Structure of PIH1 domain containing 3:
Amino acid sequence: MEGLASVHDLQALSALLSKPKDNDEEEEDLTLQPMARMGPGHIGPPAAPSGKNKGSTSAYVKKNSKDIWDEAEVTEGAHFDDLNDPRPQPEYEIVLKQSVGTEDLFLGLSRKDPSSMCCESMLVRVKLPDTKTSDLVLDVRETFLDLRTPKYKLGLHLPHPVHKQEGNARFITEREELEITLPMNRPMDCINLT
């Protein structure tokens, strides 16, 4: 019963929240006047006087005042977006892969489960009809995949970070499909995958 307030506490709170019983309207206007002048700029610590802002450690102060945004604010792959490009996006599929053996399948010795946390790599299948291998331009970043052909354009934000230089790609001409295998990069892999 410690969480419940006593009758005395409730009466004190009611007295604080109720309007003053004085009918003197001038006194009431004086108490409301400072509140009417407050705005969103008054939230937070008081601003430092101008000229002393250089030594401030505030997170809102930009390093170069001519910059519109900081490089960390721009998501990876945003510079690949081109709204005027008429090429369509091809069909694609993302499949998470695990390497399992018989000891995993029948005995469960490696503590792997079907969740994405136990997957080691990501397979991206892209259907590219009427495309040759020589027409493909592929750029893989840690969280973004950019694929361009004369007929198609794909800018794909990946669901997990990947090792961008350890992946491989192969084009299957019979199915007209590009398969890109990318090993996932997670900080806790040494714990999760042992």
In short: The chain is about 15% helix and 20% strand. The longest strand covers residues 121-127. The chain has a mean pLDDT of 76.
